[in-house]
Design goal:
The complex is a heterodimer. Chain A has 15 helices and no strands. Chain A is mainly α. Chain A has a single domain, classed as Formate dehydrogenase/DMSO reductase fold (Up-down Bundle), CATH 1.20.1630.10. Chain A is globular and about 75 Å long. By secondary structure, chain B is an alpha/beta fold. Chain B is built from 31 helices and 38 strands. Chain B has a 7-stranded mixed sheet, with helices on both faces. A 6-stranded mixed sheet of chain B has the order 21-23-22-25-19-24. In chain B, strands 11-10-9-12 form a 4-stranded parallel sheet. Classes of the chains: A mainly alpha, B alpha/beta. Chains A and B meet through α5 of A and β29, α26, α27 and β33 of B.
Chain lengths: ~450, ~1000
């Protein structure tokens, strides 16, 4: 490419091709049958979600398997897991925007979408798991006539603020970033209804220089908000456990451990979706081997950070020599839920080691499988953290067991449905990649090559 | 009648025709069911057969409250004849001396195995809500066991009979009365030929008087007593030892050394409260002054007495008898048995001998009431030889009323089978369930011409009888009974009966054709000599006191020659011991959810009995908890799930009676297994040569504690007596936070594990005081029981011969409570007087508090556990405590309602609260006074003095929660190497 001068006319054509490739997806969806099949499956799961939530609300949280001592079960582990998945999207999008890694542009939009729907799935869990879910708003600091405020020392109050903040920032970031592409889609739409729909979403975008300047400020500002939020927010979530005096929870490594683990699971899910979308929507030219390579590297880094967390936890327990901590460590290694510990360790780290080699990083199937393994492994880790600490805490007399009931599994499947419905609607209706940013990236790339 | 019946029939047919019009095939049958269920048909049926509906229809809460409210003015004063409806008054005009919202207390008693358990009954607006031990009664001194506490719920049992039955169909009392008058005339003609009366165990002087009068009227009639818990063996033993039946009452407060051979002195039973009171007095003297208080127990299966004993030896039933004879021989009482003893047994025996020798005149040797009567007699004689008669053991004339001659159930069944019984009246007994299997009671009963049953429930026996007469509960009757020390209690009603029931004494008169029997008059008749006519001031005084201070007089008797205990050769196979259930006893109370859900000592099982086996036996037979086995010998078999109990003898299997009831539509129906097939009239409590076989099936059992191994943790501690000395005040632990505001008294609790016998009285008292919900077996199995107070059970050492510990665990009320930090909505907060409060209506149910609680004392309403309670049960609730709704957390409050009540009273009287003025429900009922509550900021309060002892420790001190509930370590009976 270096030996020939860029042809401006062909540049315009290529730009138009990029825009067409992306905006044709919402306007004239290429794989309708496949989409409908996926969407029907997702709708089925959404129905499962509605049924299990109805049963839960009608009868009470006792339909789950929770008990004393295991007050929290997979509702809380799913909550943390979904949040982790969401976190990967924000990191890819916002952090790389700020550090001007333009390769992100093919991934950022759907990574952000993953964030939005994952955080929605996560955010409903703490509400569903309440004994009296209709009073969830009591966690919000509003001037109540009762004169009672949330209890600001509680990690849960801060969890509530964190989830609401994170969801707001994620949506704003996602939406601001998509405005120019909504405008492009609007401009290419042929049907009146589509023109109105995308026109409203585009907020009157005309592509004026002033628009671009304002947009740039807003976009970078929300990115700058989102990145520290990722860290602070997931640190806060870890306090849900580490603030309590329970063996296996009361650990200072938790905030860092949680952030790393969350990023890892987030990258894993983004990698899975990237490989699938790339294949099913024919976007190999846009999501290139380079992107897969970068995702693989990110998974490797965050995965190894998570591994350090495991090591630090075990080391701290052993180093403390404290009987209850050691008991919990033994229970994790060899107790009734040892499968969740070893499942997490093996699924998170053994396949991950393939990512040291570029060959495997660039192989979509391999990347998908490693991502899947990481997503499942991180789920097991969240489950392990919640359950193994609670089922045998201090007093031998209060030790018990926990088995998730069918309604918990159905609800989990239901949240997957909720996620999928949202994500599939996005794929179908919104510009899935940032057309203008890809164009800019290609242009800048060529400029730099020119120099 | 015929015409009306015809009209109903016609109407029903017309309806059927209407309902069936245009329907064919399967629909036809479905329509028939719908037809029978149609409201109009029900109305017609009801108009025609009102009796069938009397009491069967659901009484709603308002009706119950209305009836009870109306009965307020009469409670304790009025007659017990059913008040005619026009007398019912709405609560518009407040009755004199009544302040709404302020409870009234009546001294009365409830019976347990026929013995009076003296109580002070609390009523709110005429509604009995709580029973406390009667503070002035010397036998109980304000304490009450779990059974007594739970009696209040029996009163409100929705499964109680609500009207008489004839041939198991509802009838009215007039029909019953007619039949009784006819039968009475018939018996008058024959002098009572063929009339038999069968009662449960009873101590009531009125019953004794009535029965005596009945036998005078019908000289050929006979009276039999069926004691399902086996009190008769004890009587047999005194006959062996002293030549005549007597009651031997242990005086544990006077004992310096107690050697028990499988006698659960402190365990469940009518004497538990009195014995535990006495023992704790001796134990406190040991703590304070070092007065010896030794307790040595040899037993095949763990008992509460064994768990608290200084030296516990696991010995089979045979070995127990052998050890008793060996010990007796050392005191020249009987020959030395020939069999060899193990080193461990000799060591225990030496310790027992030394302890007895060191306690001249203050020694007690005792053998369990279910042991061989000859062995029990040997223990009595040994006590006599050690100078215990009149000191550690009082002999009194039998407290229970008992027929002359052979009044046993076996004699009755033999006569029934031989066709010599014409009329059988069964009062307050359920032999069809509880009689030993080989008697064939049910079959023999069918040969009786007229069978009459009177009881609280339409139970197994009632269904086999022609007539069932529902009895009034003790709390709605006029009656009397004697406590375990012989003092007569006067039983006065707390409430008018709200079902169509009669008092036992009235039914006894009805049997003789007398229909105008008034239970109060019958009671007055009994005590006329002592208290005069009704209206005499002596009556008022006696009813206010609740009992007459007239203990059973001691008699002197000297030991007679007696048959030596049998030394039958040991049978091959396992020895099965049958015992009354520690929570349900003989099964008569099996409809009581508080007792059903009460975790049983050592297994913590609820809602079920189990085949209890030793760890060694379980290992060799490859059995796990919940494996269903067949257990039995010689064609007598039961099938039930296994539970492994550390401390059980390896060749002994323990099963409990009280389960396997067959009472359709009642709470108890079909729970657990019936142990009756293992029992014979000759050997009701023991079966030798038994085999245990796996069936391959499993059954779910609901236990509240799955792990009892202490695993080296120091949750319970044992120390030496020197540690009762005060410790220097502890340094306040370092903290980064400012000291919290503390105003007024600082509440705290001390639990003396040296005194706690794990009797569950506190658990039931807490259930009653705090409206604790019972959740049923399925929820308990899921780990969702709601008890605010629990007794943790631990064992340490080898599972075959471990040391056993009990530890009551209420909320610790931590000064640095992790739960308070975790709650996002301020639903659990700290009060200035040191309580960790739970604000139900602020709680949204995040359960963070419970996740963060190191003690896991918090309980969560996973469902709406209270909304569906039958109206009767709702009426039993304490109005001073919130009934918790679905989705909120709850836990022990230190009985904050009692604290507030006392605080307000002190404020009204403008004085500070006195130490001991606030007593929590658990503390109040504790028979050993192991729980002490009070102001920890006052160094002179009882609780502060206990907490100052060196043996005071905080549970999980290392977590830094600074709990206000602390524990006092158990004391070793003796120093190492000392005697």
């Amino acid at each position: 490419m270096a030996e020939r001068r860029p042809n401006r006319a062909s540049d315009a054509d290529r730009d138009a091709a990029v825009t067409r490739a992306i905006t044709r997806i919402p306007l004239d969806y290429p794989h309708r049958l496949a989409w409908w099949l996926f969407f029907l499956a997702a709708l089925g799961l959404l129905a499962v979600f509605l049924v299990s939530v109805t049963v839960l609300f009608a009868r009470g949280v006792g339909v789950w398997g929770n008990n004393i001592p295991v007050n929290w079960g997979i509702a809380i582990s799913n909550y943390v897991w979904w949040l982790g998945i969401g976190q990967g999207g924000t990191l890819i999008s916002a952090l790389l925007l700020l550090v001007q890694q333009h390769w992100r542009n093919s991934l950022n939009r759907f990574a952000e979408t993953v964030t939005v729907f994952a955080v929605i799935c996560a955010g409903i869990y703490p509400i569903l798991h309440l004994g009296r879910p209709w009073l969830f708003y009591w966690m919000a600091p509003y001037p109540s006539t009762m004169g009672v405020w949330p209890q600001f020392k509680s990690p849960l109050a801060w969890d509530f603020f964190a989830v609401v903040t994170y969801l707001t920032v994620s949506i704003v970031f996602w939406y601001v970033g998509a405005i120019p592409d909504f405008a492009s889609t609007r401009d290419r739409a042929k049907r009146r209804s589509a023109q109105v729909f995308y026109g409203l979403l585009a907020l009157g975008w005309r592509g004026a220089a002033r628009h671009w300047a304002r947009w740039r400020q807003a976009y970078r500002l929300s990115a700058a908000l989102a990145v520290p939020l990722v860290v602070s927010f997931h640190s806060e979530v870890s306090l849900l456990m580490s603030a309590g005096p329970i063996p296996g929870w009361a650990s200072t490594v938790f905030p860092a451990h949680f952030v790393a683990g969350a990023a890892f699971s987030g990258f894993a899910v983004v990698a899975m979706l990237a490989t699938v979308l790339r294949k099913t929507l024919g976007l190999q030219d846009l999501v290139t081997a380079k992107h897969l390579d970068m995702l693989g590297k990110l998974m490797l880094v965050t995965g190894m950070l998570t591994a350090y967390g495991y090591f630090a936890e075990a080391f701290n327990a052993l180093y403390s020599g404290e009987a209850h901590e050691l008991q919990t460590l033994r229970d994790r290694f060899a107790g009734a839920y040892a499968w969740s510990y070893w499942g997490a360790v093996i699924l998170n780290f053994v396949p991950l080691q393939l990512m040291w080699l570029r060959r495997f990083r660039c192989n979509p199937a391999c990347l998908f499988l490693v991502g899947l393994s990481g997503a499942v492994g991180m789920w097991l880790e969240r489950y392990m953290l919640v359950v193994t600490s609670l089922y045998r805490d201090y007093l031998v007399s209060s030790w018990g067991a926990y088995h998730a009931s069918v309604w918990e599994w159905l609800l989990f499947a239901g949240t997957v449905g909720l996620f999928m419905v949202g994500f599939l609607l996005f794929v179908r209706l919104a510009p899935m990649m940032s057309a203008f940013e890809i164009k800019a990236a290609i242009f800048e790339h060529e400029e730099s090559v020119d120099v | 009648m015929a015409a009306r019946t015809g009209s109903v029939k016609r109407r029903a047919q017309a309806q059927a025709a209407g309902a069936l019009a245009g329907r064919t095939g399967r629909r036809f049958w479905r329509a028939l069911e719908e037809l029978a269920d149609a409201p109009s048909f029900r109305r017609a049926l009801r108009a025609e057969f009102p009796n069938a509906f009397e009491g069967v229809s659901d009484t709603d809460r308002r009706d119950v409250l209305r009836v009870m409210g109306a009965s307020l003015a009469l409670a304790g004063l009025g007659g017990c004849t059913p008040a005619p409806a026009p007398d019912a008054r709405p609560y518009v005009t407040q009755p004199d001396q009544t302040v709404l919202g302020r409870p009234r207390f009546y001294a009365t008693a409830v019976t347990f195995d026929g013995y009076a358990q003296p109580v002070l009954g609390e009523t709110h607006e005429g509604r009995p809500t709580k029973l406390e031990g009667l503070p002035e009664h010397p036998a109980v001194r304000g304490s009450a066991d779990a059974f007594t506490q739970a009696a209040i719920l029996d009163l409100y049992d929705p499964d109680r009979s609500r009207g008489p039955l004839h041939l198991n169909q509802p009838c009215d009392w007039a029909a019953f009365d007619t039949a009784m008058v006819e039968n009475g005339a018939h018996l008058d003609a024959t002098g009572g030929e063929g009339f038999r009366l069968l009662t449960g165990p009873a101590t009531s002087p009125t019953l004794a008087r009535q029965v005596a009068a009945l036998l005078r009227r019908w000289p050929r009639a006979r009276w039999h007593v069926h004691d399902p818990a086996g009190g008769d063996l004890r009587r047999e033993a005194t006959r062996f030892a002293f030549g005549r039946p007597l009651d031997a009452l242990p005086r544990l407060d006077r004992c310096a050394a107690i050697v028990s051979f499988d006698d659960d002195l402190l365990g469940p039973g009518p004497r538990q409260t009195a014995n535990a009171r006495d023992w704790s007095a001796a134990r406190k003297a040991f703590q304070a002054d070092g007065e010896p208080c030794r307790l040595l127990v040899a037993e095949p299966a763990p008992t509460l007495t064994g768990a608290i004993a200084g030296e516990r030896l696991v010995a089979s039933a045979d070995e127990t008898g052998l050890l008793l004879r060996a010990l007796a021989a050392r005191f020249s009482e009987g020959p030395e048995p020939s069999l060899a003893l193990t080193a461990r047994q000799v060591e225990w025996l030496n310790a027992a001998e030394a302890a007895l020798r060191a306690a001249p005149g203050a020694a007690l040797v005792t053998a369990g009431p279910w042991c061989d009567p000859a062995a029990q007699a040997l223990a009595l004689r040994l006590t006599a030889r050690l100078g215990g008669l009149g000191r550690t053991l009082s002999l009194v004339e039998p407290i229970q009323a008992w027929p002359d001659g052979d009044g046993s159930l076996a004699a009755l069944v033999a006569d029934m089978a031989a066709g010599r019984v014409d009329t059988l009246a069964i009062l307050d007994a359920n032999p069809a369930y509880s009689a030993p299997a080989d008697l064939g009671f049910a079959a023999a009963l069918r040969k009786v011409r007229l069978r009459i049953h009177a009881g609280l429930h339409a139970d197994e026996t009632a269904t086999l009888c022609h007539w069932h007469a529902p009895l009034a509960h003790d709390l709605e009757s006029w009656s009397d009974a004697r406590a375990v020390d012989g003092r007569p209690s006067l039983i006065q009603p707390l409430v008018q009966p709200f079902y169509s029931v009669r008092a036992r004494s009235a039914v006894l008169e009805n049997l003789q054709g007398r229909l105008d029997a008034n239970p109060r008059d019958l009671l007055v008749e009994t005590w006329r000599a002592r208290l005069g006519d009704w209206g005499d001031p002596r009556w008022n005084a006696a009813l206010a006191a609740g009992f007459l201070d007239q203990p059973a007089g001691e008699v002197s008797a000297s030991p007679t020659a007696a048959p030596p205990p049998s030394s039958a050769p040991r049978a091959e196979g396992l020895t099965v011991l049958v015992r009354p259930d520690p929570c349900l006893w003989d099964g008569a109370r099996a409809n009581n959810p508080w007792l059903q859900e009460l975790p049983k000592p050592f297994t913590k099982l609820t809602w079920d009995n189990a085949v209890l086996v030793a760890p060694a036996l379980a290992a060799s037979a490859k059995l796990k908890n919940g494996d269903v086995v067949r257990l039995g010998a010689a064609g007598r078999e039961i099938t039930g799930p296994v539970w492994v109990v550390p401390g059980l003898h390896r060749r002994t299997v323990l099963v409990h009676t009280g389960y396997g009831r067959r009472a359709p539509r009642q709470l108890c129906d079909g729970r657990g297994f019936d142990a009756t097939p293992l029992r014979t009239a000759a050997s009701p409590w023991r079966l030798d040569g038994a085999r245990l076989e796996r069936t391959g099936r499993r059954a779910e059992l609901a236990s509240t504690q799955l792990n009892t191994a202490l695993d080296g943790f120091d949750f319970v501690r044992t120390t030496s007596r020197a540690d009762v000395a005060p410790a220097p005040p502890p340094e306040p632990p370092p903290t980064l936070y400012p000291e919290k505001v503390r105003e007024g008294p600082q509440w705290g609790m001390a639990v003396d594990t040296d005194l706690c016998i794990g009797c569950n009285a506190c658990v039931t008292a807490c259930d009653a005081e705090n409206n604790v919900a019972m959740v049923g077996k399925a929820q308990v199995a899921k780990g969702r029981e709601m008890h605010w107070m629990r007794i943790d059970q631990y064992h340490e050492g080898p599972p075959d011969d471990p040391q056993l510990f009990n530890q009551p665990v209420p909320c610790m009320h931590c000064e640095e409570a992790p739960c308070e930090m975790g709650c996002p909505v301020n639903a659990t907060v700290h009060s200035h007087d040191g309580l960790n409060l739970q604000v139900y209506n602020r709680c949204i149910g995040t359960r963070t508090c419970s996740s963060f609680c190191p003690y896991k004392v918090r309980r969560f309403n996973w469902f709406d556990f209270t909304g569906d309670d039958p109206p009767e049960r709702q009426a039993a609730r304490n109005p001073e405590v919130t009934v918790r709704d679905r989705g909120v957390m709850e836990k022990c409050t230190y009985c904050v309602q009692r604290i507030e009540k006392a605080r307000i009273q002190a404020k009204v009287e403008n004085r500070p609260l006195r130490d001991g003025e606030v007593r929590t429900a658990c503390q109040q009922t504790c028979p050993t006074e192991a729980i002490v509550f009070g102001d920890v900021s006052d160094p002179d309060s009882a609780v502060s003095r206990l907490k100052a002892q060196r043996r005071n420790y905080a549970l999980l001190e290392e977590v830094g929660t600074r709990p206000r509930t602390t524990y006092l370590a158990r004391l070793a009976d003796r120093e190492r190497g000392d005697g």
